[in-house]
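Write out the 3D structure for:
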Amino acid sequence: MKAKRIIMSFLGVIIGAISIGFFKLAAFGVDPFQSFISGIDQLSTINFGTLYVIINTCLLLFALIFDRHYIGIATLVNLFLLGYVVQFSYDTLHVFFPNPSIFVRGIAFIFGFVVLCLSSSMYITADLGVSTYDAIALILANTWKIGKFKYIRICTDLICVIAGTALYLLGNGNPSQIPTIVGVGTVLTAFFMGPLIDFFNRTISGPMLKEKDHN
């Protein structure tokens, strides 16, 4: 049973990282947390993968202090591999679609968004640790009892979007490029990612785990 949870958790993280590559290809705006990192990236000379590790290590400290239940195998995989897998995913897609049409970008966004929500649901439900960013909303919802996860996730996502935009501009980023990191796709993700993760928890990941545990 533990092995099945590990597989479900590992696949959730890796598939999620690949889906972010599709977000970047779509250029309609990445998910809120990635937009926050992109803002910091504009101010930093550190490569994206390493910067991702540094930021998530800071968030890891918060989770370790307030509820280490959410720290596990998936957290470590997410912490040390996700940033590099995202970059590999985007670079590979860019080889096949160097100048994607608006249609290709639209398909890439829809696919990336749905798969990211499903993959997040998979490793959250596997309960072997979540990403340090997911842990923040889960701690606020389940440990501190501030409110429901889906609503708290909307709030944390909106904070990331606003902060990411501000940091990008502070780093002298080109305003015309803002829609590629904080665009309509980011806004849609901020409002609908939490509810869709909750939906997948109830309809796919939860039943999948129960079936596996039963077997």
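The mean pLDDT is 87.
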